[in-house]
Design goal:
By secondary structure, this protein is mainly alpha-helical. It has one domain. It contains 19 helices and four strands. Strands 1-3 form a two-stranded antiparallel ribbon. The protein has a two-stranded antiparallel sheet with strand order 2-4. α7 runs parallel beside α10. The longest helix is centred in the middle third of the chain and has 26 residues. It starts with a helix and ends in a 34-residue tail after the last helix.
């Protein structure tokens, strides 16, 4: 039982923040609107389609995941993570009727709400673990978790997209595993993340950039296998609906927020546009970012770099030094931000993933930077809930705010973070340090 107490002690901040977010999330969706005189609960309607898909999956109807009535456009992992909740909903005989004037207080939310908000909190634990790995100060970790929980409200309680939060949480744990010289585990975690929400594909090139060539193919196989198997099974059961939903990625600039790129996107029925082609373009940009990362760290850690440096190479058997981990996290935040920069149609929770990652690197910097980043992230989250459909009023300020947040969280080469110390399971060596520097400060 000693290890449980130690784990609770080390992750006390995320535990407290998770409990607080569940309470706040349930209050703001149910009792809060009632106190303002509203008769209908303020529920995340997007969740209902995923719940319907999950319930079909729980009953063995694999082909029904993308069939009409669900609106699911993510990969099947988005439904898989809600299967325990769907099983409980079915056991209790709760209705999945869409909330509205004829369903003001759906009882299913009292089950699905706490479950999906708790799922979203995986990112809080991953962020705290990475901040600890980077040597962030105790109270900076507390502020990091508080800021992360506040911006997570938009994804969980407001919009009901636990797949985004779970995917980013799994991605962060994959980066943590890779930094501890566990590339196999990192590959499987990255694969699970992609299977839940493919937006994390934007970050995979950066993870590949810090792998040696011989490790890249096995990593890609592990990262692709969960999605290939699960999506293949669903496609066999219902090819037409699966292909249409996964490839076209329809979105509505009338319901959601248009951007500067909306007019360039392929038009679809019902005033929708296809977001898929633009998302392929952002993956290309993410690959270019990965090339920058690889060239920079090769110049710092290889014999071809500055004269007099020892040959450290790109050895996957070595834990990462602190600056490398901080740099990878920042570039991951940038690649995730590409979605907001180049998406033809934006939804209010889209800016959350880069903010969640950028706050981690900000926690390793000075107090003023961390406080400013936290306040800015909260302001962006609040501003993103605005109803405006004007590009210059809504989209441009959001993109500008994300750019400022990324600038604030840029990891300094001489940032005062503790060196990465090997833990249980880490390789005992570590990347070679420059002469006269401590391990982890190479």
């Amino acid at each position: 039982m000693g290890w449980i107490r130690e784990l609770v002690r080390r992750r006390a901040f995320p535990l407290i923040a998770s409990a607080g977010l569940i309470v706040v999330g349930m209050y703001t969706t149910t009792w809060g609107p009632a106190m303002l005189g509203r008769t209908e609960w303020a529920l995340p309607y997007d969740l209902w389609g995923t719940l319907i898909a999950t319930t079909r999956l729980a009953h063995g109807n694999i082909g029904g995941i993308y069939a009409p009535g669900t609106g699911l456009i993510s990969l099947p992992g988005a439904a898989v993570i809600l299967v325990p909740c769907a099983a409980l909903i079915s056991a209790l005989g709760l209705s999945l009727d869409i909330p509205g004037p004829h369903n003001l207080h759906p009882g299913v939310w009292l089950v699905a709400g706490p479950y999906q908000i708790a799922l979203c909190c995986v990112t809080l634990f991953a962020a705290d673990a990475l901040a600890e790995r980077l040597g962030a100060e105790f109270w900076k970790r507390a502020l990091l978790v508080a800021a992360s929980a506040s911006v997570l409200w938009s994804v969980s309680a407001r919009w009901g997209h636990p797949e985004d939060a779970v995917a980013v949480g799994l991605l962060l744990y994959a980066i943590l595993a890779q930094s501890r010289a566990r590339p196999r585990l990192a590959g499987w975690l990255a694969g699970a993340a992609v299977c839940v929400q493919p937006l994390v594909l934007l970050a995979l090139p950066v993870m590949l950039a810090v792998l040696p060539w011989r490790r890249m193919v096995p990593f890609l196989v592990r990262a692709a296998l969960p999605s290939v198997l699960l999506l293949g099974a669903v496609a066999i059961a219902n090819w037409h609906d699966t292909y249409r939903s996964v490839t076209s990625q329809p979105n509505s600039p009338v319901i959601n927020h248009p951007t500067a790129w909306t007019s360039l996107a392929p038009q679809m029925a019902g005033q929708n546009v296809a977001a898929g082609p633009f998302r392929l373009a952002t993956i290309v940009l993410a690959c270019l970012c990965a090339l920058v990362v690889r060239r920079y760290w090769q110049s710092r850690l290889s014999p071809a770099g500055e004269a007099g440096r020892p040959a450290a190479g790109w050895q996957a058997d070595d834990p990462w030094p602190t600056p490398l981990l901080a740099s990878v996290l920042w570039w991951v935040a940038l690649t995730l931000a590409l979605r907001s920069f180049f998406e033809p149609v934006m939804v209010s929770y889209y800016p959350w993933p880069p903010m969640a990652v950028a706050l981690i690197t900000a926690a390793t910097l000075s107090w003023p930077r961390l406080l400013t980043a936290g306040v800015l992230a909260g302001a962006l989250t609040a501003a993103a809930q605005g109803p405006s459909h004007a590009v210059w009023i809504w989209w441009v300020p959001i993109v500008a705010g994300l750019a400022v947040l990324l600038a604030l969280s840029w990891p300094k080469a001489n940032s005062r973070t503790a060196p990465v110390r090997p833990r249980a399971g880490d390789h005992p060596r570590g990347i070679a340090a420059r002469p006269g520097t401590a391990p982890g400060e190479a």
